[in-house]
Amino acid sequence: MKTSIATVTLSGELPEKLEAIARAGFDGVEIFENDFLAFDGSPADVGRMARDLGLTITLFQPFRDFEGMPDALRGRTFDRAERKFDIMQELGTDMVLVCSNVSQAALGGIDRAAADFRELGERAARRGLKVGYEALAWGRFVNDHRDAWEIVRRADHENVGLILDSFHSLSRKIDINSIRSIPKEKIFIVQLADAPLIDMDLLYWSRHFRNMPGEGDLPVTAFTEAVASTGYDGFFSLEIFNDQFRGGSTREIAADGHRSLIYLADQIRRKVDTPVGIDMPDRAAVRGVGFVEFATDAEEAVELVALLEALGFRKAAVHRSKKVTLFQQGAIRILVNVDPAGFANAAYAVHGTFAYAMALVVDDAAEAYARALALDAEAFAQPVAAGELQLPAIRGVGGGLIYLIDEKSPLGRFSEIDFEPVAEEGKAGDAGDAGLLQVDHIAQTVAYDEMLTWLLFYTSIFDTRKTPMVDIIDPAGVVRSQVIENEAGTLRITMNGAENRRTLAGHFIAEKFGSGIQHLAFSTSDIFATAEALRARGFKALPISPNYYDDVEARFGLEPALTERLKAENILYDRDGEGEYFQLYSGTYGEGFFFEVVERRSYRGYGAPNAIFRIAALKKQMRPEGIPRDAG
Ligand code: MG
Ligand code: MG
Which ligand is nearest to the CA of 148? Predict the structure, then answer.
C-alpha cells in the first residue's frame, strides 16, 4: 500500500510534521493549505523539505466552492484556481483536491458542474496538473460520491478524477458497493478516516472526532475492500480531523497512522486479490499469560514477596544468572527481578517497583514477533548469558515489555532452561495454595490520549477485539475504561485512561512517571474457599464499606446469608444476565498497584459498577498528597 497522510492530522509546525511523517514510514503527504500559509518559507522550500525526507506530495488541498457558480462569479473562481496551480507547481505536486461546493451562491446541476470541471481539466492539463473532486458529506448540491463520480464521468477529461473519502461516504451510510464499478484510473486518490459512532451534526463530527482506521466504529475495512476490488493501487491517505490528535504528540500520532494503514492493508489483502498490503503472519492468537515480571530492588522486594506469599504463591525457581525469582501458583507465574543490571533495573530506577513486563503465550512466537515488527512495534533485546534463551520482545504500554513465547519451541520451557528449581521444604504438595488458577485480566493505566494508540497496538498484532468504552466514576473524576480481550478469555486487558491526576488512575500515572500495569487479577473457581485460605495466610483484603452490601443485596435481591458471607470476606458482587462475578482486592502497594481475585460464573464483564466502591476503599489507604511513603 502506498501510504500518505494529510498534514492537518498532526500537531506542530510544518517542518516538524513532515519529519514525523517521514519517520513513521509514510510514502506521501497531503499539504493542507493552512499549514503552508502558517509556514514562513516558500512553496519551493516546502517541496524541497518533503523531497529531502523522501516524501511525495500527493496533493494540495483544499480548493473550495468551485463548481456550479453563477456567471458573475465563475471567472473569479477560475482565477483562484490558476493561483492554486502556481503554488502546486512550486510545491512540486500535480494534484489539487476540489471539494464539493458549500456556497449559498452555488447553482446545482450535474451538467453545469461537469462543464466547469472540463474547463478546469483543460487548464490543469496545460500545466501537467490533475484535479480530484471530492463529495463532502455536507456539500450543498453534491454530498454523495456517486454524484461526484457522475460529474467526473460527464466532465470526461483525462486530468479530472474522483477523490473518495471514507468518512464522507460512511458517515452518510452510502452503499459502498457503488465504488466497485468505478474505473480504477478515474480514482485519483483515496482518503481514509474512521470515527466513533456519535449521533451529532455531520460537519462537527467530521471536524473534531475522526480517528485512524481501526480506532473507530465505521466499516472502513469494507470501504477499502470495495476500493481495492477496482484494482486501485494508488495512495491511501489519512485525513483525520481530531482535536485530541492536533494536541497530541506529533510523532506518536504519525506512528499510529502508519500502523493503522499497514493493518488495514493486511485485512484487505486477505479478502481481495490486490497489490495492496504486505505479506505477514495472521494476528497472533494468545493462549494465556506466560508470566508477569516485577522490577524492584532487594529492599522493596521484601514487601512484594510477602504479599505474593500471602496470596498463596510459592517460590518455585531462581534464575541461573540473574537475580530473578519465579513464584508460582496454578498456571500463574510471577517473576520478581532485583537484578542490579539490565533493563528491569533501569525501569525500576525510573518507575519504582513496577510490573514492567509480561509474557504472552502464542501459537508461534517467531510469527507473532514478525507480525508485531511489520506493524511498527519496537523490538527489544538485551544480552543473555550463554545457554539462556533470548525471548523475543516488543515494547508495550509505558515502555514496558511484552515477551512472546510459545509451546512449540524451547521458549515454552524458559522456566526450566533459564531457571533452577527451588526445593520446597516443609510444604507438601499444594498445601499452601490459595486456589488461584490463572491470570484473569491485566489492568493497564494509561493517559487518556494514549488509549487509541494501545487499542490499535493490541488489536492489530493480536487476535483480540475491543468492547465499547465505559466511564468509571472515581470520586475525583471520570476514568475511561476500554477492554481488549479475545474470544477464549485467555487474554483480557482492561485499559483505564486517566485525564486528571486526582483520580486513582491519574495519581498512579503521575507518581509512576508514566503508564503501566496497575492491577493484576487472578481467577479462582471458589471465591469463598480462596478468601478463607488467604485469610489463613495473613492476607488482608481491602475493606469495603458496609453500605455497599445493603445496596448490593437490594439491587440483586440476594439472600441475606449470601450478603453476609460477601460482607465478611469483603467480596464485591456483580451480575450480567445469568452471569455472576465475585471480586476481592488486596490493599494498594507502592503508588497504587494492587492485586484482585475473581471468580466468574458465566460472566464476561469486569465489575465496572463496583469500581467506584473499590476506588473509594483504595483511596482511603493511599498516603495523603505530599507525605513521603517512609513517613506514613
Ligand atoms: Mg477528505
Ligand atoms: Mg479488575
Answer: 1
Residue 142 Cα to chain centre, angstroms: 34
Peptide bond into 62 cis (omega under 30): yes
Residue 497 Cα, ligand 2 centroid: separation in angstroms?
14
Split into its structural domains, the chain has a count of: 3
Q: How many A from CA of 543 to the centre of ligand 2?
A: 16
In a domain, 296, yes or no: yes
Q: Which residue in 597, 585, 578 sits closest to 526, CA to CA?
A: 597
Q: Quote the ligand 2 centre to 234 CA distance (angstroms).
A: 45
> Whole-model pTM above 0.90?
yes
Distance of CA 15 from the midpoint of ligand 2 (Å) = 43
Please report the pLDDT score of residue 623 as a whole number. 58
* 304 plus 375 within the same structural domain: yes
Q: Is residue 344 domain-resident?
A: yes
- pLDDT 10s digits, 80-127: 999 999 999 999 999 999 999 999 999 999 999 999 999 999 999 999
State in Å: Cα 485 to ligand 2 middle.
13
Cα 212 to middle of ligand 1, angstroms? 13
Q: Locate 447 and state its grid cell.
A: 493517559
Specify the CATH number for the domain of residue 554. 3.10.180.10
Span 270-294, average pLDDT: 92
Kindly state whether residues 178 and 252 are assigned to the same domain. Answer: yes
Last residue of a domain, one of 382, 397, 421: 421
- Residue pair 330/433 in contact by the 8 Å Cβ criterion: yes
DSSP for 497-555?
Answer: EES-TTSHHHHHHHHHTS-EEEEEEEEES-HHHHHHHHHHTT--BPP--HHHHHHHHHH
- Classify residue 523 as exposed, middle or buried by CB count within 10 Å of its CB (0-12, 13-18, 19+): buried
Ligand 1 centroid – CA 239 distance (Å)? 6
Q: Please give all residues whose CB falls under 5 A of ion ligand 1, grouped by chain where several chains appear.
A: 165, 191, 239
Ligand 2 centroid distance, CA of 252 (Å): 28
The string of pLDDT tens digits covering residues 379-428 is 999 999 999 999 999 999 988 999 999 999 999 999 999 999 997 654 54
Asked whether residue 532 carries a pLDDT value surpassing 80, the answer given is yes
- What domain range includes position 59? 2-269
325 lies in a domain? yes
Between the CA of 387 and the centroid of ligand 1 the distance, in Å, is 55
